[in-house]
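Structure in, sequence out. Go:
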């Protein structure tokens, strides 16, 4: 009863806190590389900006001046952009050497004194923009939010051209008016353009990132955000749920929580921390669905296996079985007594499993379970990361190669009297090596495949190391187009 209460408590805590089983950390150098990749798009969006017409009446020392600015077109030259991650604040974007060329037409009227029209060419240089971009959890997906947006154009150089002839003293007043009006308007316009561009990039790429990844007809992986990203010095960490689910019952989760992990611990551009929970939740889901169970008749038994599924074939190892059921057909049924457990330590990884192997005697339509052997076995797990090409789209895959290690066999139940299980150790170990482990490998080697939001993406020098209860994957990346 106490174990049941502990399991229920763990299940409740996991559901309430949604602790992450996967953490992806991206360095500010990575963000700089991403920004550099997108700069041609940014430059094209900001290259030509249409500014709304302006109509104002302004009080001056010579009286009220009515001014109308139309056909305002701003051309922004490609600026320099720097990116960094500020502790607890967000991604800091610094745009420097911002230069603009603005052309416009104007009409003005100095009440009861003078009126005229003309055009103006405005130049700004060495402007700068300081951005703070937050990343928030929006229905399990990351979303970019502009949390701060300051812009300074510095001094505006304005040249006026008019065929109507404007007195110099009025021209000076007009230049000052244009400087004040345009500076505020241009700043607001470019601030809005930058905010819109950030939102468009967020909508185009981040909102398309899948949070639920179907793997087969049985299970899917929940890779939604488990909370808001964490801004550490130099890194942004994305906490992800990282749990396998039964597709028919996605609300069912394993009765154990993920182990805690640090946010980041390396120096590479991108770091992925994969807790053993994601792999254990896979075994749990497949086990709960019965996918890990198997049944073998003699036709399905590999030809290399030394014994056939007939009681006569087992007469030397299990003489009482053949005496009770002489020369009868058999079947072997494997039932996972518990879901396999993936254990990750700094020294490596292994998979531990507990299998109940049923020796079933077949007599026409009747079946009799004669013996049940409990097999506790351990296999090594050699994890790998790659980007397989033979998929519908670009993905990152983390999988494992499982190799048989050792086993311990005991008799769980018998209807034919005492059975010395150790006599079958070599025979059943061969069955594990040749049948059970390859079946587990089909699932393990397929691994967890996470589609990428950007197709032109390639890992560079990925390295995988082992820590206590989680894997650490460090990699650089490049854009291939």
């Amino acid at each position: 009863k106490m174990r049941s209460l502990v399991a229920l408590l763990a299940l409740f805590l996991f559901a309430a806190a949604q602790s992450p089983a996967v953490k992806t950390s991206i360095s500010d150098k990575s963000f700089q590389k991403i920004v550099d990749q997108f700069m041609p798009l940014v430059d094209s969006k900001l290259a030509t900006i249409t500014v709304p017409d302006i109509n104002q009446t302004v009080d001056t020392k010579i009286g009220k001046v009515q001014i109308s600015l139309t056909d305002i077109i701003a051309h922004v030259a490609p600026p320099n952009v720097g990116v960094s991650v500020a502790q607890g604040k967000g991604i800091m974007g610094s745009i420097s050497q911002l230069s603009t060329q603005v052309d416009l037409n104007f009409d003005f009227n100095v009440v009861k004194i003078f009126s005229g029209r003309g055009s103006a060419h405005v130049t700004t240089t060495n402007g700068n923009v300081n951005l703070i971009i937050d990343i928030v959890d929006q229905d399990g997906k990351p979303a970019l939010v502009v949390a701060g947006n300051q812009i300074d154009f510095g001094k505006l150089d304005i040249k006026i051209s008019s065929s109507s002839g404007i007195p110099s003293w009025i021209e000076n007043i007009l230049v000052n008016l244009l400087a004040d009006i345009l500076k505020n308007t241009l700043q607001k316009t470019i601030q809005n353009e930058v905010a819109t561009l950030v939102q468009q990039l967020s909508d185009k790429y981040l909102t398309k990132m899948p949070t639920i990844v179907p793997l087969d007809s049985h299970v899917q992986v929940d890779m939604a955000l488990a909370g808001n990203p964490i801004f550490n010095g130099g890194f942004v960490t994305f906490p992800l749920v990282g749990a396998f689910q039964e597709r028919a019952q996605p609300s069912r989760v394993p009765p154990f929580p993920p182990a805690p992990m640090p946010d980041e611990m390396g120096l590479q551009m991108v770091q992925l921390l994969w807790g053993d929970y994601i792999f254990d939740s896979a075994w749990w889901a497949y086990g709960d669905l019965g996918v890990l169970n198997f049944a073998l008749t003699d036709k399905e038994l590999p030809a290399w296996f030394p014994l056939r599924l007939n009681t006569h074939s087992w007469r030397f190892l299990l003489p009482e079985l053949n005496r009770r059921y002489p020369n009868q057909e058999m079947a072997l049924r494997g039932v996972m007594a518990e879901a396999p457990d993936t254990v990750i330590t700094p020294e490596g990884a292994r998979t531990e499993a507990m299998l109940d192997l049923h020796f079933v005697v077949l007599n026409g339509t009747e079946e009799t379970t004669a013996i049940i052997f409990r097999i506790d076995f351990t296999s090594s797990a050699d994890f790998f990361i790659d980007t397989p090409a033979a998929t519908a789209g670009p993905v990152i895959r983390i999988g494992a190669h499982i190799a048989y290690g050792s086993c311990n066999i005991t008799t769980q139940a018998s209807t034919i009297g005492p059975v010395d299980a150790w006599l079958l150790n070599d025979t059943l170990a061969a069955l594990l090596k040749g049948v059970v482990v390859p079946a587990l490998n089909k699932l393990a080697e397929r691994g967890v495949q996470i589609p990428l939001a950007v197709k032109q993406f390639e890992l560079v020098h990925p390295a995988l190391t082992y820590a206590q209860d989680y894997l650490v994957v460090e990699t650089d990346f490049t854009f291939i187009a």
